[in-house]
Design brief:
Order of helices and strands: EEEEHHEEHEEEHEEEEEHEHH
Number of domains: 2
Number of strands: 15
CATH class of the largest domain: Alpha Beta
Strand order of the largest sheet: 13-12-11-10-14-9-15
Helix content: 10-25%
Shape: globular
Radius of gyration: 21 Å
CATH superfamily of the largest domain: Cysteine proteinases
Amino acid sequence: MKIVAEAGSKACSGATYTWVQVQSVSGTSGSGFMADKWFASATCPGSHPTPPPPPPSSSTCVSAPLYQQCDSRWSGSRLGTKNGVSVCKAGCAMSSVSMALAAQGSKIDGATSTPGTLNAWLTHNSGYVSGDLIVWSAVSKLGLIYQNSYSSLSVDGLKKLVDSCHFVIVNVRNGGHWVLVTGYAGNGNFKVNDPGFSVSSYAHSGMSRFIVYAGRAKLQAVHAGRVSAPEVDPPMDYQEEEATLPNSAMLDAVQTNAENARGQPG
C-alpha cells in the first residue's frame, strides 16, 4: 500500500492523524486518516472528523465556460475605446480573462462575466490603455487576483500552476492570440479554451508569455478575509517579463498589441 495524496491533519486521542489517499499494489484505492503506520477509516478514535478535501487536480479545478469573441451578442462591440477595433477582431485576451472570471464565480453587475459585460466594465474602470490594450491587473477589483507575467515557463512549471488551480492565460499563434489554459493533455500539450479558433489544445512549444491569476481555493480564502491577496511561488524554469514600458507599475499588466497589428481574431 502506498500513499498517493495527503491533505491536512487532526489531533485526537493523543495522536495526530493525517488524511491520506492510499492505493494498494492491486490498484484498489481509498481514503481516511493515518496515525504513525496505521491506516484507519475516515474517523479516528473518540471523534468523528470530516476529512479535508483531497488536493486539487487539473481535471477538476478549472471549469470555465467557452466564450467566443465573435459571438453575435458582443462581436460588434467596440473593444475599449479604440475606433475600428471590435471584440471580434481583437478581443481574445479580454475574452480569456472573462472565462476565468466566470469560472471562479466573479459577478459584474450581479451577473456572470461575459466578454460583453467585461468589455464594458473595463472600458469604464481603467481596464484598457491605448484604447484597447487590456490591463491584466484591472480585474483584481472583481476578485480575480493578478499575480504575475512570465515570458517563459517550462512544461513542468506551467503544469504546476494549472494543477494548483491557477488561471493561466497564454500567448499562442506566433504572438497573435490569447487563450485560457484549462489542463494538461500530455506529451507537452495543454488543453485550452480558445475564444477565436476551433482548437482545444496547443503545444507548449508554441506558447509565449504566461499571465497568472490566483487559483480558486486561495481566492475563496481571500474573499472570506482569512488571508491577504495570495502570492504565487515562481514556477520551475521561469523568466520574469522584462520592463519595456516607462510605467513599471503597469508594464507587467498590459496586453501586447501584436494581435491588433496582425488583423486576425484575438
